[in-house]
Amino acid sequence: MTDDVMIELQHVSKSYRGQQTPAVEDVSMTIRRGEIIVLVGPSGCGKTTTMKMINRLIEPTSGRILVDGSDVTSLDPTDLRRRIGYVIQQVGLFPHMTVATNIGLVPKMLGWSRTRIEARVDELLHLVGLEPGHFRNRLPRQLSGGQQQRVGVARALAADPPVMLMDEPFGATDPLTRDRLQNEFLRLQEKLQKTIVFVTHDFDEAIKMGSRIAVLGERSRIRQFDTPEQLLSNPADQTVAQFIGAGASLKQLNLRRVGAIDVDEAVLVRLDDTPTSALRRLDESGEWAVLSVDSERRPQRWITARDLDPQQDTLDGAGGPVTTVELHATLHDALDAMLASSSGATVVVDDAGRYRGVVNIDRLMRAIAEMREMQRNRDRPVTESPEGTATRTPPTQRSGIPATGDGESR
Amino acid sequence: MTFLEYLQSRRDLLIAQTVEHATIVLMSVALATLIGVMIGIASYRNPRARAVAVAVAAAILTIPSFALLGLLITPLGLGYLPALVALTLYALLPIIRNTVVGLTEVDPALTEAARGIGMSRLRSLATVEIPLAWPVILAGIRVSTQMTMGIAAIAAYVGGPGLGNQIFSGLANLGGVNSLNQALVGTLGVVVLALVVDLCLGLLGVLTRGDRRTTRRSRASTSGTRPGEPDAVGALAKGPALAAAANTQGGQR
């Protein structure tokens, strides 16, 4: 075992008394430091059971689980759990405690001083995007679902655990909020570099969140353990392909982020510019519209020649609405925003909402072509049988070492 | 002698008896809370243990109070002790029952979260489960208090303290000078005392809630100002056994 390995499952099984077939059967998996591993599979396949065995909420019947090199059964379960962040779908914030108390629970159990806990709570609230002064003393029921889940994540991060277990953490929120939470979490993870085991039944979420994805079948048997790119282009068997569902190629748009592709520049005008000067800029550039931005360079509206009224002093209120995507958004999000926008282009903004560039459909097509090219190069050494039960070379793009459970493709 | 004259002439005695009455009720309810909450905590996770605990407590409640007090004379003699024991036994059912209901109704996601972030069983009980079940437990305590108020009057039969002595001596001298006054002052005293104590417990509920739990259920179960059965039914929508038991008790009084 190298230093790189954070969690290792060795032939782990779980059977319940009175049940003929085990709930989890012979699962082996190696998880490296800083990875997000997504366990994805139909409901009842044992993915949550597998995850809960890592922090011993469920005790394995046989097999070994190593976290950071030590066998979990040799550790005190409560100590172990305090060192592993835990986020569940229902959030599970204690309704009779304030946000600050909830977040500070684990540090308190670890015996931190009051002042240290207070400082940490404020730091975490900042981190998850909640203003401490405003939210510290609120009760969970005074928060929206998305805010509650943010606090849930903050609570799990409180004692800075190297490992986090997340059981459908964004499953209970509406699609819009879920999307935002996912993006925020990915941004957070870039900074924190935790080792994360993430359980979901939503394959799209798996593709978005995972560095590697384990597609689980019945009894939590690993059908394929691979990078999202490999899963989409090379499903190990029919079942995996079925689970991925229709539109695998469309889903590949989820694999690239807007920040990773080239963007175009729009012609910018300021809100307090005069319509006459805007018209001149528009004519000079030969573009179909100019983009108005406020003093913080936040995009406001697309303004075409028709929207410009020379009678007005400023550009305030002129033009049509703008759709924006963050750098972290996927190309899929960008396409979605483009289709929703009358202009057929979407504006890329940074974390603070400031203008970074424009993506239009041509740009997107070029990025897709690039992805195809990359894939073709990567797939070249693969010898593949028609059924897709392939002898594959290890995935190379986002992971180097094949999973121990990967050889099980049937 | 009119009722008011009677009240004035026996002022000291009546105050003493009222205090005694309140003391023995509060003591037995306190004891029953201690024992009942512990039994509830010990049994709520196991359906069979839970059923046994509630059934036994319900069985005790169906023993007519005269009979139980009489039976306790043999091992415990006359006076304060048998009264205290009998009242404590009667007070157990609502408290056990509500503790069990309150604890089992804590959202499983919360107990799982408590375990998941590394709370031990005891810590989870003390910081999460009992605080969340508290409004329901307190409702049980209020029902118990109301019930034992009435039964405590009968404890005078075995030489126990309290306002029951007024009632019994009134009934014994039926037709005598002050018999009606005595029976009346005893009965009214118990009722007024019950209302006052219930009001205090209601206030305690508001204070310990800390304005944090205003779910519909907990509000419904603690806000009843009428003593006795309606409250019991409100607190224990799931507890027909108690409602039935409370009715039996009502018949006995």
Automatic annotation (TrEMBL), chain A:
Tagged with keyword Nucleus: no
Pfam families: ABC_tran, CBS
GO BP term, example: glycine betaine transport
Signal peptide: none
Membrane-spanning residues: none
Record-listed E.C. numbers: 7.6.2.9
An example molecular function term from Gene Ontology annotations: ATP binding
Occurrences of domain ABC transporter (ranges): 7-244
CDD domains for the chain: CBS_pair_SF (cd02205)
Top-level EC class as recorded in UniProt: translocase
Biased composition (Basic and acidic residues): 372-382
Sequence ranges of Polar residues compositional bias: 386-399
Highest taxon above the source species: Bacteria
Domain CBS: 318-374
PANTHER family: OSMOPROTECTANT IMPORT ATP-BINDING PROTEIN OSMV
Family stated for the protein in its record: Belongs to the ABC transporter superfamily.
Protein name: ABC-type quaternary amine transporter
Organism per entry: Micromonospora costi
Organism classification: Bacteria, Bacillati, Actinomycetota, Actinomycetes, Micromonosporales
Automatic annotation (TrEMBL), chain B:
Residue stretches making up the ABC transmembrane type-1 domain: 18-201
Record-linked SUPFAM superfamilies: MetI-like (SSF161098)
Annotated Low complexity bias: 220-246
The UniProt record lists the keyword rRNA-binding: no
Example GO biological process: transmembrane transport
Keywords for the protein's UniProt record, in alphabetical order: Membrane, Transmembrane, Transmembrane helix, Transport
Segments of this protein annotated with the region Disordered: 212-253
Membrane topology recorded in Swiss-Prot or TrEMBL: Multi-pass membrane protein
Parts of the chain that traverse the membrane: 22-44, 51-73, 79-96, 183-207
Superkingdom assignment: Bacteria
One cellular component (GO) term of this entry: plasma membrane
Family: Belongs to the binding-protein-dependent transport system permease family.
Protein name (Swiss-Prot/TrEMBL): ABC transporter permease
Source organism of the structure: Micromonospora costi
